[in-house]
Specification:
Blueprint (H helix, E strand, L loop, with lengths): L3 H13 L8 H13 L3 E4 L2 H5 L6 E5 L9 E6 L11 E4 L2 E4 L7 H19 L7 E6 L7 H4 L10 E7 L4 E6 L1 E10 L3 E2 L10 H10 L4 E4 L2 E10 L5 E2 L2 E10 L2 H21 L2 E3 L2 E3 L2 E10 L2 E2 L5 H12 L5 E4 L5 H7 L3 E6 L11 E3 H17 L1
Parallel strand pairs: 3-6, 3-7, 7-20, 8-19
Antiparallel strand pairs: 1-2, 2-6, 4-5, 5-21, 8-18, 8-20, 9-14, 9-17, 10-13, 11-12, 12-14, 15-16
Bound molecules: zinc ion and calcium ion.
Calcium ion binds next to loops.
């Protein structure tokens, strides 16, 4: 059913259009045109200027053909990680790689090509389907910026698939929510040799805070990390200020809150404990914290309609779909946060975020076959 050559050609064209985050203009124009030719009404949601990208997110509406159903969203992202300039895809023995020192961009162009092929198959075979909304985001790789700034008033679907993970016949239904946390410890500077008694070391406070902090794998659902530290001026100055950045993730919103609070408490307590008398008065370091929600929780129930649909489609093809959780956030977290029950589908891409990235044509064919079944059964 799937046209292997057409699918490979499409992937080749997509991969040849370099599209690092923020510089998606060319691929966005190509995709708008391509989706229109397939019969979609395509809208740019205008998020581009807000996030500093050449393009906004694209929302392509495909009207139903011969079937009444609630709309189904199919999402992918059009940006790639670096090095992603001047990508030259190479097809050898059924495997796409990049020719040189760039990524291939199968993340996420394999998913885009698979969707385009599936829609063409449905149309040329007159297989009935309900309304589809293909959402192509920008700037996914730089903090889900496109999805976070997406104009959700353009989307009617309450269920969706994000084609954006390695593996084939794989669905991901859970991913953690995450916070980014920034701490600034403000102590008091003094000459370290002449008047150390007048100083309060911000670095000493930070060290004590981190020493007592629960970090790493907190439990089976939760992780935390302090990732960067910057501060101090010179070896002969008691450091006035230090800035630290960390994160916490959990599959439980409550545990994320608790871990975040714990990290903040550690700093406050360390500051209190290291309060010292300077010139007859107690001086305590000031701790300024900033908590930013990085992405919301993705927790699609195991018996959700969208998962049943994917599994039923797999069954029709004689396949068992592996359903599991993931450790990181993606656009699907944002969609779920907006009430669109979205699971992630494997696209066959491999070794992503590296110059050794590759994808097999046969794997893309398998995913397109699954998509045809999913869309026709939706
Ligand atoms: Zn991706
Ligand atoms: Ca990626």
């Amino acid at each position: 059913m799937i046209d292997h050559q057409r699918l490979a050609d499409e992937f080749f064209r997509l991969a040849s259009i370099s599209s690092p985050s923020f510089r998606e203009g060319t691929i966005s124009r190509y995709l708008s045109e391509r989706l229109r030719l397939l019969g979609a009404e395509v809208v740019d949601d205008g998020a581009g200027p807000k996030i500093g990208s050449e393009s906004g997110n694209l929302v392509a509406y495909f009207p139903a053909r011969g079937k009444e159903a609630s709309p189904l969203m199919l999402s992918v992202h059009m940006d790639t990680v670096e090095p992603g300039d001047g990508v030259q895809p190479v097809l050898q023995d059924g495997v796409f790689t990049s020719a040189g020192e760039t990524v291939l961009g199968a993340d996420d162009k394999a998913g885009i090509a698979e969707i385009l092929e599936a829609i063409q198959v449905l149309q040329e075979r007159d297989i009935p389907y309900g309304p589809l909304e293909v959402v192509v985001t920008v700037c996914e790789e730089v903090g889900l910026l496109g999805a976070k700034n997406l104009d959700f008033s353009l989307i009617r679907s309450r269920r969706g698939l994000a084609l954006d993970t390695s593996g084939v016949d794989l669905a991901i239904h859970r991913a953690p929510c995450a916070n980014k946390i920034r701490f600034e410890v403000r102590g008091r500077e003094a000459h370290a040799g002449i008047a150390p008694e007048m100083g309060l070391s911000a670095i000493a406070v930070a060290a004590r805070a981190i020493d007592r902090m629960r970090l790493g794998r907190i439990d089976e659902e939760t992780t935390a990390n302090m990732g960067t530290i910057r501060g101090g001026q010179a070896t002969n100055i008691v450091p006035r200020s230090v800035v630290l950045e960390g994160e916490a993730r959990s599959h439980s919103r409550l545990k994320l809150e608790q871990q975040t609070a714990h990290m903040i408490d550690c700093f406050k307590e360390a500051a209190r404990e290291l309060t010292r008398d300077i010139g007859g008065r107690p001086v305590c370091a000031e701790v300024v914290t900033e908590v930013m929600s990085d992405y919301p929780l993705m927790a699609v129930p195991r018996d959700a309609g969208i998962l049943q649909l994917v599994e039923a489609a797999g069954k029709t093809l004689g396949r068992t779909i592996e359903v599991k959780g993931a450790g990181g956030g993606s656009d699907a977290n944002v969609f779920n946060g907006q009430g669109i029950e979205t699971v992630i589908l494997g696209t066959g891409m491999s070794n992503v975020h590296s110059v050794d990235e590759f994808v097999r044509v046969e794997d893309m064919v398998r995913v397109s076959e699954l998509l045809v079944e999913i869309i026709s059964q939706a």
